[in-house]
Write a structure and sequence with these properties.
It is a single chain. The chain has 93 residues and is mainly alpha-helical. It has one domain (4-85). The chain is built from three helices and no strands. Helix 1 (4-22) packs antiparallel against helix 2 (28-59). The chain is elongated, with a radius of gyration of 15 Å.
Length: 93
């Protein structure tokens, strides 16, 4: 994908399909882990949108890799993708 909005939509569709698998039997531990997972994914989504808005503010483009981009925006985007993927050290859920 070349636009941040497309990347965000794809990650959110993945999350919506994965959460019902976490609470399949409805046990207490499953419910707790699904709530933690949802909160971490919501935090990652908000960071991704904030970082993409910072990058958009400087480049006036929604493309994923425009040359003049905000270093803070790019850092937030990368950290949020790591958080949403559960990569080390962002696997808190």
């Amino acid at each position: 994908s070349i636009h941040w909005l497309s990347i965000w939509v794809g990650l959110e569709i993945n999350m919506m399909g994965f959460i019902p698998l976490l609470i399949y039997r409805g046990l207490t531990m499953e419910t707790e882990s699904s709530i933690k997972y949802f909160i971490m994914q919501a935090l990652g989504s908000s960071m991704l949108m904030f970082g993409s808005l910072l990058s958009f503010n400087l480049s006036l483009s929604w493309e994923a890799w425009p040359y003049p981009t905000s270093p803070l925006g790019l850092t937030l985007i990368i950290l949020s993708v790591f958080l949403k993927l559960g990569a080390f050290p962002f696997h808190f859920w």
